[in-house]
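Researcher: I'm preparing a figure for a lab meeting and need a structural model of a single chain. I don't have an experimental structure, so a prediction will have to do for now. The sequence is pasted below. Please return the structure as tokens so I can convert it later.
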Amino acid sequence: MAYFITDACVACGSCADACPLGIISEGDGKYVIDAEQCVECGSCAAQCPMEAIEQQ
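Model: Understood. Here is the structure written out token by token.
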């Protein structure tokens, strides 16, 4: 199950830097993960200081 970014995101960008596939981009007020390409590695969730990334 792919990861997604919740509304707790403060758009710091640390998740995008941590993603080995580069599939996290800046959205409207928060970052967004391309769920179709997510391989569920968890790198983004481990890096998020707000704990705003969860699995669907």
